[in-house]
């Protein structure tokens, strides 16, 4: 995955960069920049010099924290394209190599490091806005049909994804059985009979897509539901119930979403009984 398209990772980099910049500003309160008209051996001496009577232990602690944060920013330069081209040294990552401002013959200066941080922060903001605009919609399990998620939730949260799918499928089949008042055949057959186009019989109610049953669109929905419902039972419920194969989260979520669609369709159907068999 391209890190430039992950809003979570861009947010992570932005947060660590903010911490890095705060720590760098603290570091600089214990130093003076070796720049300007009064610079000492500019280009030979370090770019920053320790102030007199500075707490050396505190400086070491801040330096350690900056190095830790620099490690978390190992991808920042490549993600934002913020880097420095230094003659004789090539391309320099100003975040990972920030401490070189303390070296003799430094290749970076404090103002350069801080400026790169600000530029990277702005680029991260722009990248995040673009990533958010281009992001694909996601499925939230809690927004699936209540029948599906209530059956799956506990097992899902415990990490038993295949069993969660099986439980959800059983719940949707139970919805159909309750409406048709049938439990006298395998589920696949019951789904096919529930949406069959022929007239109901005593003890064999049908589920009808609402509308004029002579209308072609209604006929298409009715036959589609007959195939969809029985097919979902065969390819989702049966493997989840009888196979031991581990389901990955995405695959399990897609199955729950399919069952949710089926449950919503069943909600919209009308029960067709033989008169007196209600």
From TrEMBL:
Residues in Conserved hypothetical protein CHP02391 domain copies: 144-264
Superkingdom as given in the UniProt entry: Bacteria
Protein name, UniProt field: TIGR02391 family protein
Species of provenance: Cryobacterium flavum
């Amino acid at each position: 995955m391209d890190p430039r398209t992950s809003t979570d990772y861009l947010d992570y980099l932005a947060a660590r960069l903010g911490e890095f910049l705060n720590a760098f500003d603290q570091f600089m309160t214990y130093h003076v920049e070796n720049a300007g008209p009064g610079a000492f051996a500019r280009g030979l001496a370090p770019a920053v010099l320790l102030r007199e009577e500075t707490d050396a232990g505190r400086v070491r602690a801040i330096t350690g924290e900056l190095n830790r944060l620099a490690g978390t920013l190992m991808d920042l330069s490549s993600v934002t394209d913020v880097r420095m081209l230094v003659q004789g040294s090539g391309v320099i990552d100003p975040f990972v190599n920030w401490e070189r401002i303390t070296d003799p013959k430094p290749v970076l200066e404090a103002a350069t490091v801080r400026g790169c941080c600000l530029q990277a922060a702005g680029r991260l903001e722009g990248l995040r806005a673009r990533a958010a605009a281009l992001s694909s919609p996601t499925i939230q399990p809690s927004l699936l049909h209540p029948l599906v998620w209530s059956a799956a939730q506990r097992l899902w949260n415990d990490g038993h994804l295949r069993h969660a799918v099986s439980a959800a499928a059983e719940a949707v089949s139970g919805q159909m059985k309750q409406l048709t008042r049938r439990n006298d055949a395998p589920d696949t057959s019951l789904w096919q009979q529930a949406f069959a186009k022929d007239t109901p019989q005593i003890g064999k109610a049908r589920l009808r897509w609402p509308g004029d049953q002579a209308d072609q669109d209604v006929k298409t929905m009715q036959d589609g539901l007959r195939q969809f419902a029985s097919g979902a039972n065969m390819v989702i419920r049966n493997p989840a119930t009888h196979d031991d194969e581990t389901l990955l989260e995405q695959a399990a979520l897609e199955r729950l979403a399919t069952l949710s669609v089926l449950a919503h369709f069943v909600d919209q159907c009308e029960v067709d009984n033989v008169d007196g068999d209600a």
